[in-house]
Structures are given as structure tokens and as C-alpha cells.
Amino acid sequence: MFLSERRAEHDDEGTLPVFAAFSDLMACVLGIFVLFFVWVVSFEVTMASDLQRERAERVQATDRVRALEASLAGPLRAGLITFVNGTIGIRGSVLFDLNSAELRVEGQALLREMATPLATYLATREEVLMVSGFTDDLQIRGGPLRPYQDNWELSVQRAVTVVRAMIEAGVPEESLFAAGFGQNHPVVPNDTEDNRAKNRRVEMAPVPRPRQLELTNQAPASALPPAHATPERATTDGAG
Predict the structure, then answer these.
(1) What are the Cα distances from residue 7, in Å, to 1, 12, 15, 16, 67?
(2) Fold type of domain 72-208
(3) pTM score, two decimals?
(4) CA distance 88 to 80
(5) CA–CA gap between residue 88 and residue 94 (Å, rounded)
(6) Measured in Å, how far apart are the chain's first and last C-alpha atoms?
(7) Residues 6+ apart with CB under 8 A from 111
(8) Are residues 97 and 104 in contact, defined by beta-carbon separation less than 8 angstroms?
(9) pLDDT tens, 90-135?
């Protein structure tokens, strides 16, 4: 009888630390769960705030685009321009004669009409307007009557001409830049004269404003040549 009681007491003493360890483990698990729950809730709150801010920004951007489209209603109704997904398209025949980068009178009037709405739109955005020139696939040849060597040069010059006209009409020059694509990126196949006329065009599209790069990996002062150092002479002869 006495032996049984001692054995039972010994068994009880052996099981007490197990329950204590188990309770500590459950407390740790509960603590981790609470921390995870708090993190999830804070993450959801942050995501909801970000989504709400993004929706507000999208609504504002959409309103600006609609306002720009409304201000260009006249040229749109007249069929002088197209306005698709924020990109303005102008047929080349509205702005230029064939193989020319000199603005027609109608083109000058159109760009003057577009300048104020575009300047207003760009003033509220961290964007600049990319003016792109495009041609058809018929190659031109340089000469007295055709001063442009190829479609690349013609498309670039047309874009530059439009940019200069927009600056003269009041658009800040830092809000514009020109690009030429030649015969690349046609909107329709160059298989008919009407299609080629559609591909001869100028497009205006807002793009993010370039940001100044910060050069962090600058050469140490010891690596730079001393100010009094004499530059090495070239080893080959010839004009500079």
C-alpha cells in the first residue's frame, strides 16, 4: 500500500512540468497569433488607405483628361484631330504638304487653338508632352526640292516644327520634346494611298517628366588628376 502511494506521488510529480511547459507553449502561440492578427489588421488598413488614395488620383486624372477632351471639342468635331486614351493624333495633311516640314496655314491655326488647353493640362501634371512624327513607307530622296535624306529626318523635323509652334503659342518649352519614328509604327498597313495618308501623322502624348539622376558613385578626389597636370598629347596626327 505504501509503495503504491509513493509510486502515485512520483507519477504526479513527473507530470507537473509537462503541463507547465504546455501552458507556456500555448501562451507563446497565442502571443504570436495576436501579433500576426495585429499585423494583418494594420496591413489591411494601409492597403485600404492606399487604394482609396489611388482611386482619388485616378478620378482626378480622368477628370483632367475629360476636361482636355472637352476643350478640344472643336477640332474633334471638325475631324482635324483624334483623341484616344489621352493621345492626340493629327493627320500629316492637316499640318504639312507632302514631303515637307513647313506648317500649312491651317496647321498653324490648329496648333494655336490647341496650345492653351494643353498648357493648362500640363500645368497640373508631373508630365511632359512627347510630340512624335511619323511617315509612310515611301522612301524620299534628298535633293534641291527634297532637303530631307530619309523618312527619319523628315519625321524628326516635323515633330520639331510642331514643338516650336506650340512654344510660340504659349506652351512652356520645358513641357515639350520631339521624337521621330520615320515609317515605323504605322496605324494601318501601307497598302493604299488612303492608308499611307493615315500613317503620315503627328501624335502628342503625355509621358512622365524626366527626373534628375543622382550620381552616387563619384570618383574619389585622389583618383582625379591634379589641376596643374598637363594633358597627354595625341599619338596620331590629324585635324581635330
Answers:
(1) 10, 9, 13, 15, 90
(2) 60s Ribosomal Protein L30; Chain: A; (3.30.1330)
(3) 0.66
(4) 10
(5) 13
(6) 116
(7) 95, 103, 162, 165, 166, 169
(8) yes
(9) 999 999 998 899 999 999 999 999 999 999 999 988 899 999 999 9
Residue pair 115/170 in contact by the 8 Å Cβ criterion: yes
CB 143 within 8 A of CB 127: no
Number of alpha carbons in the 13 Å side-chain half-sphere of residue 189: 2
| Cα–Cα distance measured from residue 230 to residue 228, given in angstroms and rounded to the nearest whole number | 6
**Cα 76 from chain centre:** 25
In percent, how much of the chain has pLDDT > 90?
Answer: 47
199/181 Cα distance (integer angstroms):
11
Give tens-digit pLDDT for 175-205. 999 999 999 999 999 999 999 999 999 999 9
Domain boundaries, the chain: 1-62, 72-208
